[in-house]
């Protein structure tokens, strides 16, 4: 496996419509913001982390991460956030060849996420490695080549293609599966009712 550092991109640029707006990652479970849980699990796995978020970056200052906004207009979805993160990594961590993206509302991501995604990509000589659990694919939870940012910008800005699955289908992709018992490690807090479920998972998740 390559010894090149791998960086992490935490995506917090969504509109949270199903949560009634606002910043989902700043909602609390187990006494801490969801984003704090994400950082705690991802940070030991990555050389550097960058947070993708739109609007005033000052609201994320307590977390101590660089914050980059989408530069593709009109809230173009998670691909725009991944592109923003890849651009930041290319400029600020030039030795990093790959980056893992995670959603900012997934507080229980596996502690072996990066190693397993990277190993699978290497073993299968794939371009992208994507996480799955319980028969579901999670395209936002994936390992990307930093060099893919050039093609990704073209897809977003010239072709206007924003759908994750249609973009990942263009490349050699390997799926990496995690068990979803006793809980789904990729459980995400989409709605207010999910906060209660997340509290229950937090009580049994290994911190």
> Strand order of the main beta sheet, please?
5-4-1-6-8-7-9
CATH H-level superfamily: Spore Coat Polysaccharide Biosynthesis Protein SpsA, Chain A
Specify the CATH class.
Alpha Beta
Task: Give the tally of β-strands.
Answer: 9
Total helix count? Answer: 6
Catalogue the unreliable spans.
16-20
Order of helices and strands: EEEHEEHEHEEHHEH
Task: Briefly note the CATH topology name.
Answer: Spore Coat Polysaccharide Biosynthesis Protein SpsA, Chain A
| Separation of the first and last Cα atoms | 27 Å
* Helical content band: 25-40%
CATH architecture designation? Alpha-Beta Complex
Average pLDDT level:
92
Layout of strands and helices, then pairs:
Blueprint: E1 6-11, E2 28-29, E3 32-33, H1 34-42, E4 49-52, E5 67-68, H2 78-92, E6 98-103, H3 113-123, E7 128-133, E8 136-145, H4 149-157, H5 164-168, E9 173-178, H6 192-204
Parallel strand pairs: 1-4, 1-6, 4-5, 7-9
Antiparallel strand pairs: 2-3, 6-8, 7-8
Helix pairs in contact: 2-4
Structure description:
The chain has 207 residues and is α/β, with parallel strands linked by helices. The protein has a single domain, classed as Spore Coat Polysaccharide Biosynthesis Protein SpsA, Chain A (Alpha-Beta Complex). It contains six helices and nine strands; from the N terminus they run βββαββαβαββααβα. The chain has a seven-stranded mixed sheet with strand order 5-4-1-6-8-7-9, sandwiched between helices. A two-stranded antiparallel sheet has the order 2-3. A hairpin with a 2-residue loop joins strand 7 and strand 8. Helix 2 packs antiparallel against helix 4. 41% of the residues are buried.
């Amino acid at each position: 496996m390559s010894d090149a550092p791998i960086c992490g991109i935490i995506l917090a640029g969504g509109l949270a419509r199903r949560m009634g707006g606002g910043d989902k990652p700043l909602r609390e479970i187990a006494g801490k913001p969801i984003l704090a849980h994400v950082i705690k699990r991802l940070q030991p796995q990555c050389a550097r982390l960058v947070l993708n978020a739109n609007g005033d970056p000052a609201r994320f200052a307590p977390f101590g991460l660089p914050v980059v906004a989408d530069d593709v207009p009109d809230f173009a979805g998670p691909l725009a956030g991944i592109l923003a993160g890849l651009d930041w990594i290319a400029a600020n961590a030039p030795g990093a060849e790959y980056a893992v993206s995670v959603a900012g509302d997934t507080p229980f991501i596996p502690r072996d996420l990066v190693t397993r995604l990277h190993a699978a990509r290497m073993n299968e000589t794939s371009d992208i490695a994507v996480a799955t659990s319980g028969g579901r694919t999670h395209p936002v939870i994936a390992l990307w080549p930093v060099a893919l940012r050039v093609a990704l910008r073209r897809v977003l800005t010239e072709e206007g293609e924003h759908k994750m699955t249609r973009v990942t289908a263009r490349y050699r992709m390997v799926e990496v599966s995690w068990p979803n018992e006793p809980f789904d490690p990729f459980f995400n807090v989409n709605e207010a009712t999910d906060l209660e479920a997340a509290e229950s998972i937090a009580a049994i998740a290994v911190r």
